[in-house]
Amino acid sequence: MKLGDIAHVRTGDKGDTSNVAIVAYRSEDWPRLDAALTAERVARHFGAPDTGDISRYALPQLHALNFVIRGALSGGVTRSLALDAHGKCRGATLLDMDLPTD
Question: Which letter, b or e, does each residue of 8-20 get, where b requires 16 or more Cβ atoms within 10 Å of its Cβ?
Fold first, then answer.
């Protein structure tokens, strides 16, 4: 099962920081998201060596997780030569993550 089967994503940016929020479609899927999406697992999915630049915030009332990734945008929107200076592709990439089976 892919993460995108049970959740949607919203992204944002501020300077060189990317923000990726994952929101469960159904409240009954929240425990699975909370257990499966650790900062370590998200870092590995994005190819980061560690989680030093990733903070995870749980929002159980919204059935959501918010990941703040510092230093992710190669200087930010106005300074980066990256194709995705806003970090929007990070959300789509995360939705392709395989979730562990029960």
Answer: ebebebeebbbbb
Query: Where do we find the tokens 């993460």?
Result: 3
Q: What is the pLDDT of residues 10-25, one digit of tens each?
A: 988 777 788 899 999 9
Strands (DSSP E) along the chain, which ranges?
7-14, 17-24, 54-59, 64-69
Is the backbone of residue 75 left (phi > 0), alpha (psi -120 to 50) or beta? left
For CA atoms 12, 29, 46, 82, give the dihedral sign.
Answer: negative
Question: For the whole model, what pTM was predicted?
Answer: 0.81
* 7 CA to centre of own chain: 11
